[in-house]
Automatic annotation (TrEMBL):
UniProt-annotated stretches for the region Disordered: 390-412
Residues that hold ATP according to the record: 119
Protein name in UniProt: Protein kinase domain-containing protein
Ranges annotated as biased composition (Basic and acidic residues): 400-412
Keywords: ATP-binding, Kinase, Membrane, Nucleotide-binding, Serine/threonine-protein kinase, Transferase, Transmembrane, Transmembrane helix
Membrane-spanning parts: 34-54
PROSITE patterns: PROTEIN_KINASE_ATP, PROTEIN_KINASE_DOM, PROTEIN_KINASE_ST
Species of the source: Arachis hypogaea
Length: 412
C-alpha cells in the first residue's frame, strides 16, 4: 500500500519511528508543543501537495503572514483545549451526544454562538493517535455537501479532539431505532433524500477523492442529519486511502457486525465494494426500519438481507416497508430501493454495482437499468435457492463471530 522511502521501510513505518522519537523527547523533558508539531509535519508531508499547503499553519501558526501573502486559508483551524472546555462546559455530562469505542461526542457552543460537536478520544495511545491523524487527514482533504466537514482539531498533552459542525437532527440510527424513533419524523420523501445524499457522499470518496478513500464503517449511526434532514456521512477513523492502481488493501478487520462484507470480515480484504455492501444493508434498514441483525436464538442471528431477499423474490415489497410509514410511500421507489439494496449486499463482490451506479439507480435516471433490476439473477431464483445464492451464509452463529475477529470491531 505504501511506496518505499529513502533508507528502506515504508511511509507508515517512517511515521511510527518519528512518533516514538517524539515520545522519547517528551520523557526527557523536551518541549511538548515542539514534538507534536514535528510529528504532524512529518505525517502530513507524506499525504500529498494538497495537505502540504497546511503545514505552515501546523508548524508556525503565522496566520497574519499567510494573509499578507494572499494564500488561501484552510476551512478549519486548531482549537485550544481551554476553548473546547469552555464551549462544552468542561465536557459536562448533560452536553454528551453519544459514546462509542472511540470515546465520546459532546455538544458545544463557541463564543460567536455557532454550535459544534466535539469528539473526544477515550484513551491516549499511539494507536489512538494514528486513528486521530487519519481522520483529521481525510476530513481535511475532502469537501462534499454530504460529508461531515471538519471545523478543526485539538492536540494538547494527551488530549485528542476533533471538532465538527453540530447536526441538530443527530444520526439516522436515532430516528430508526433510538430516541426519536417513536416520533416518526422520517417520512418516505426524507428517506429517499437521505439515501441519495449518503450515496453521493460515498461515491465522492470512491471516485472523486484523490487518492480514493474507502470508509470501512458505513452504518446508520455514521449518517448524520442536518436541520433539513440532509445526510452527512461521518466518522472517518477507520477509513483507508487506496493508492492508484491498487485493487484492494489487506488490513485488520474493523467495522460493525451486520454491515461487514463477507470477503472483508473473513479475509481482511477491503476495497470500495465493501462500502457498497455496507450501504446496501443501510438501504434495507432505511426502507424497513429493522436492525441489520435479528436475534433468532441465543446463539444465532439473521441478517436483514437474508430476511428481505425471499420477500423480494416473491415481490412482497409491502411486507418489507417500515410499518411506521403507514403505507404512505411511493411503491415504485420502495421496490427500487429494496432491489438496489439487495444487489449491493450480495455476497459476490464482483457482482455489486459501483456507488456511481447506485446513485444513478436511486435517482431513477436510467429507466432501462431500473427495468433490469428485477431481472437480476439474484431475484429470478426461487425463494429456497435465493437463500443459498452465491453460497452466502447470512445466518451468523456465535462460533462464526469469533472467527471474524470481532475483538477488533465496534459494537453496532
Amino acid at each position: 500500500m505504501w511506496k518505499k522511502v529513502k533508507g528502506g521501510g515504508t511511509d507508515s513505518e517512517c511515521i511510527r519511528w518519528r512518533w516514538s522519537f517524539s515520545l522519547k523527547r517528551r520523557k526527557k523533558g523536551g518541549r511538548r508543543r515542539l514534538s507534536l508539531h514535528i510529528w504532524i509535519f512529518v505525517y502530513v508531508s507524506l499525504i500529498g501537495e494538497k495537505v502540504m499547503a497546511f503545514c505552515p499553519m501546523f508548524c508556525c501558526g503565522n496566520v497574519s503572514d499567510r494573509k499578507a501573502r494572499g494564500k488561501k486559508q484552510p476551512p478549519w483551524r486548531v482549537f485550544s483545549l481551554k476553548e473546547l472546555h469552555s464551549a462544552t462546559n468542561n465536557f459536562n455530562y448533560d452536553n454528551k451526544l453519544g459514546e462509542g469505542g472511540f470515546g465520546s461526542v459532546y455538544w458545544g457552543q463557541l463564543w460567536d454562538g455557532s454550535q459544534i460537536a466535539v469528539k473526544r478520544l477515550k484513551v491516549w495511545s499511539s494507536k489512538a493517535d494514528m486513528e486521530f491523524a487519519v481522520e483529521v487527514e481525510i476530513l481535511a482533504r475532502v469537501r462534499h455537501k454530504n460529508l461531515l466537514s471538519l471545523r478543526g482539531y485539538c492536540a494538547e498533552g494527551q488530549e485528542r479532539l476533533i471538532v465538527y459542525d453540530y447536526m441538530p437532527n443527530l444520526s439516522l440510527v436515532s430516528h430508526l431505532h433510538g430516541q426519536h424513533s417513536a416520533e416518526s419524523l422520517l417520512d418516505w420523501k426524507r428517506r429517499m433524500i437521505i439515501a441519495i445524499g449518503a450515496a453521493e457522499g460515498i461515491a465522492y470518496l470512491h471516485h472523486q477523492a484523490t487518492p480514493h478513500i474507502i470508509h470501512r464503517d458505513i452504518k446508520a449511526s455514521n449518517v448524520l442529519l442536518d436541520s433539513d434532514f440532509q445526510a452527512q456521512v461521518a466518522d472517518f477513523g477507520f477509513a483507508k486511502l487506496i493508492p492508484d492502481g491498487a485493487t484492494h488493501v489487506t488490513t485488520r478487520v474493523k467495522g460493525t457486525l451486520g454491515y461487514l462484507a463477507p470477503e472483508y470480515a473473513m479475509l481482511g480484504k477491503a476495497n470500495e465494494s465493501c462500502d457498497v455492501y455496507s450501504f446496501g444493508v443501510l438501504l434495507l434498514e432505511l426502507a424497513s426500519g429493522r436492525k441489520p441483525l435479528e436475534k433468532l436464538s441465543n446463539a444465532v442471528k439473521r441478517t436483514i438481507s437474508d430476511w428481505a431477499l425471499p420477500l423480494a423474490c416473491e415481490k412482497k415489497f409491502r411486507e418489507i416497508a417500515d410499518s411506521r410509514l403507514n403505507g404512505d410511500y411511493v411503491e415504485e421507489e420502495l421496490r427500487r430501493v429494496v432491489l438496489i439494496a439487495l444487489i449491493c449486499a450480495q455476497s459476490q463482490a464482483e457482482k455489486r454495482p459501483t456507488m456511481l451506479e447506485v446513485v444513478e439507480l436511486l435517482k431513477g435516471d436510467s429507466k432501462d437499468k431500473i427495468s433490469q433490476l428485477e431481472a437480476n439473477e439474484l431475484f429470478i431464483s426461487s425463494v429456497t435457492v435465493g437463500h443459498d445464492h452465491g453460497s452466502r451464509s447470512d445466518i451468523i452463529s456465535e462460533e462464526n463471530q469469533s472467527k471474524h475477529q470481532l475483538e477488533h470491531m465496534k459494537s453496532a
